[in-house]
Amino acid sequence: MTQILLINPNTSTATTQMMVDIARSYFASVMASPPTVIGATVARGAPMIVNEQNLAVAAEAMNDPQILALASQADGVIVGAFGDPGIEALRARLEVPVVGIGSASVREAGEGGRRFGIATTTPLLADSIAANVRKLGLGASFTGSRFTTGDPLALGDVPVQLENSLASAVQACIAQDGAQAVVIGGGPLGEAAQALCERFSIPVIGPVPAACRALLQAMRLDEAA
């Protein structure tokens, strides 16, 4: 049985389980024999990555021996934070495909030169988000990020408010920036992303399903789906 490891680089086990559930649901919807998805949560860091310091700590936490041991037994790995912390070091250690929810969703949004924006809750990561888009060679198609207001952690505790706040950010990406697709930027925003896909006529891309699609392609399992 093919096994996928989804690593959550923040310390919230609830976020890990939510992302694992989304991944399992996605694979089950497109494959007759979906892979097994297991989750792993880093032992140190922040419950949500909201600034550059959190991102740096998350990258270091990915080197935990327990995380690496699980990754070495998997057939493919998903890094479940939008900044893809520690992904290059993980790829250097492993012989299996490793994808990040950030790069996967941004690449999908920008396919074919499509103009895209990012809607998320972490304004302190604005520079990092933009730098990662440029690193992927998609800066010319990027219409910019739109952010919710208030404390991201507090907002995440109120799902309806989170969804509505992100919806306003998505609308700003479309109406003010001219985005033709919008990425929901963050692993903890996965459930909200699922709901927002139904609220807009343009593609609203959830980061976890995008990473699942990218991993299937990297593992060549999409050909058998």
UniProtKB/TrEMBL annotation:
GO terms for molecular function: amino-acid racemase activity. It comes from the Bacteria. It holds the Pfam family Asp_Glu_race. InterPro entries: Asp/Glu/hydantoin_racemase (IPR015942), Hydantoin_racemase-like (IPR052186), Iso_Racemase_Enz_sf (IPR053714). Coiled coil: none annotated. Belongs to the HyuE racemase family. This is Hydantoin racemase.
